[in-house]
Write a structure and sequence with these properties.
The complex is a heterodimer of chains A (about 260) and B (about 290).
Chain A lengths: L8 E10 L2 E11 L4 E5 L6 H9 L6 E6 L2 E2 L7 E4 L11 H12 L3 H14 L15 H13 L5 E5 L7 H18 L2 E6 L2 H7 L2 E5 L6 E6 L14 H16 L5
Helix pairs in contact in A: 2-3, 2-4, 3-4, 6-7
Chain B lengths: L8 H14 L6 H22 L10 H13 L8 H32 L1 H16 L6 H8 L3 H25 L3 H9 L4 H38 L5 H10 L3 H29 L16
Classes of the chains: A alpha/beta (about 260), B mainly alpha (about 290).
């Protein structure tokens, strides 16, 4: 992207403790604007904690976290968050759910509605606007959640294991869709995942975390051409990175 | 077969008629229920007559019917008409139900927003809840007199607790992810309450309201038994004093009708408000693409 892109999101010497438990220790990350960063790590390594700190949902005491030069303390209006489950409000239609950020942030509702329709088209949910969440499959619900996270045009999209609950086939399709959505929207994305292939397939960079106390073990750039297809998974470079990550996990003695 | 006999209407007619002929034997459940009622009432009427059961013990169905007719046929403003007493009891029920539930819900909302206050109030709520509220009815009548006010107060007391307890439980049971979702959008506490907490708690609140509606009818009758100038409870006592058991039964019927109408109305509202909830888990449909 641009020259200023260097340190769009900057995390320095970040540590977080819950009581006696050290959840994160000395995290240093810098993320370029518009890039896609995947974070993999074993359960309980603090990846979700890290993401919640970036989202402003959780406070921190040590270190610094900044977005575009501004320190992050508390939630911000320019962040979109996708949770492990879709968390669509069951009493709202899909369209009303996608419009939720506009209501909360007090945006122009007419414009928001137009944008919601565009986003629903982008996540291929045309015709489901007036349906209730329970009438949709899990994959469709998660796509609606992604549309909702993008409604207020956030600069960064934070995703906390968004596809963990989906079956393997749906998950692959969602990975392809997410790559397309990211390419179309130009957002900076941080994706947390359990899946090594998913992390490599989607990421410009894969950050590998160690178990508690969580810290960044290695930063692995993924030099695979875009747009990637599922065939990318059978390329030698893909296999090498996957092996490297598995190697790291076996060293730290943690498999998922 | 049909190719061999293409025009023989007389041959095909019986096969068409067969299901039609069998149909009267298969009763709908509604018809069957109604039929059962008729049989039961007839059995009652003739049983009481055949065994010469005294009228003040068990009245005949026709006696009840006459009493009901007499009570309903008189002017609604006459002091001995069923309409007059029903109107008073219904007014007590509705007033007490709305005021009691509203206070219960309001305190539930306030308490749910302040966890500390909830912890402080918790033992009191538990203690008051274990008290049978009906026991307090005589004192309330002493305090507030024989008018409608004491009955409304008793009903308030009875309806307040189920709504308070279920609404607190409902606000507690809100999926924390829903709150985080709104927090991630920098929502204000009021927005979080309005858009996530309150709608999430509504199924619980309605469970409390349903309980409260049933309690409200009980509260009205108990209050009127203890001391009142008018109302269906007073009517029952007057009729019992005159050994007019048929008249009492007529009042029971009116009371059931009031109860049925109230629960039906509440269910209507609930279905409208909670339209998004699956009526029957078996009917849940998922569309896969």
């Amino acid at each position: 992207m641009q020259a200023v892109a260097e340190d769009y999101i900057r995390i320095q010497r970040l540590s977080k403790t819950f009581g006696d438990v050290v959840a994160l220790r000395d995290i240093d990350i810098s993320i370029e604007q518009g890039s896609f960063v995947s974070i993999v790590g074993p359960s309980g390594c603090g990846k979700s904690t890290l993401l919640r700190i970036v989202a402003g949902l959780l406070d921190y005491e040590q270190g610094s976290v900044s977005l575009d030069g501004q320190a992050i303390h508390g939630t911000r209006r320019d962040v979109g968050f996708v949770f492990q489950s879709s968390i669509l409000l069951p009493w709202r239609t899909i369209l009303e759910n996608v419009m939720l950020p506009a209501e909360v942030l007090g945006l122009d509702m007419k414009q928001a509605r137009r944008r919601a329709m565009e986003l629903l088209h982008m996540v291929r949910l045309d015709g489901f606007e007036e349906k209730l969440p329970r009438q949709l499959s899990g994959g469709m619900q998660q796509r609606a959640a992604i549309a909702r996270a993008l409604l207020h045009d956030p600069k960064i999209l934070l995703m906390d294991e968004p596809f963990g609950a989906l079956d393997a086939l749906t998950r692959e399709r969602m990975n392809l869709e997410l790559q397309r959505i990211w390419a179309e929207s130009g957002k900076t994305v941080i994706l947390i995942t359990h899946s090594i292939p998913e992390a490599i397939f989607l990421g410009d960079t894969v950050l590998v975390m160690t178990p508690r106390p969580g810290s960044i073990e290695r930063v692995i750039p993924v030099d695979l051409p875009r747009p990637r297809t599922m065939h990318a998974m059978s390329e030698p470079a893909f296999g090498r990175i996957a092996d490297e990550i598995r190697e790291l996990f076996s060293h730290t003695g943690s498999f998922d | 077969m049909s190719a061999v006999l293409p025009t023989s209407g007389s041959m095909t007619a019986p096969t068409v008629d067969k299901p039609r002929a069998r149909r009267p034997l298969r009763l709908g459940t509604k018809t069957a229920s109604l039929l059962l009622l008729v049989v039961l009432l007839a059995g009652w009427e003739f049983g009481v007559r055949a065994f010469h059961v005294p009228k003040f013990l068990i009245p005949t169905v026709s006696d009840i019917g006459v009493a009901l007719w007499r009570g309903l046929a008189t002017s609604p403003f006459a002091k001995d008409s069923l309409w007059y007493h029903s109107a008073i009891t219904l007014a007590e029920i509705l007033l007490g139900f709305f005021v009691g539930s509203a206070i219960g819900l309001a305190i539930g909302v306030v308490v749910s927003q302040m966890p500390k206050l909830e912890a402080i109030l918790e033992p009191y709520v538990a203690a008051l809840q274990s008290l049978p509220k009906v026991a307090v009815a005589p004192i309330i009548v002493v305090w507030l007199g024989f008018g409608i006010g004491s009955k409304v107060a008793i009903i308030c007391l009875l309806t307040f607790f189920p709504v308070l307890v279920t609404s607190i439980a409902g606000f507690k049971a809100v999926d924390p992810d829903r709150i985080d979702l709104l927090r991630s959008l920098s929502a204000t506490p009021w927005q979080i309450f309005r858009k996530a907490k309150f709608p999430s708690a509504l199924p619980y609140i309605f469970a409390g309201l349903n309980m409260a509606a049933a309690f409200a009818v009980v509260g009205a009758i108990v209050g009127e038994f203890v001391g009142a100038q008018a109302g269906l409870g007073v009517l029952i006592q007057q009729m019992e004093a005159q050994m007019d058991t048929g008249g009492s039964f007529a009042v029971f019927i009116v009371l059931s009708v009031i109860g049925i109408v109230l629960t039906a109305a509440l269910r209507r509202i609930q279905q409208r408000v909670l339209h998004w909830m699956p009526q029957d888990p078996g009917q849940q449909r998922t569309i896969n693409v």
